[in-house]
Amino acid sequence: MPKTASDRLIVALDLPDVAAARDMVAALGDAVSFYKIGMELAYGGGLALVEEFSRAGKQIFVDLKLHDIGNTVEKATAQIAKLGARFLTVHALPQTLAAAKRGSEGSTLQVLGVTVMTSYDDADLAACGYRLNVCDLVALRARQARDAGIAGLILSPEELVSTRALVGQSLLLVTPGVRPAGAALGDQKRVATPSEAFARGADHIVVGRPILAAPDPRAAARAIQAEIAQARS
Ligand SMILES: O=C(O)c1cc(=O)[nH]c(=O)n1[C@@H]1O[C@H](COP(=O)(O)O)[C@@H](O)[C@H]1O
Question: Where on this chain does substrate bind (predicted)?
Answer without folding.
Answer: 14, 36, 63-72, 118, 179, 188, 208-209
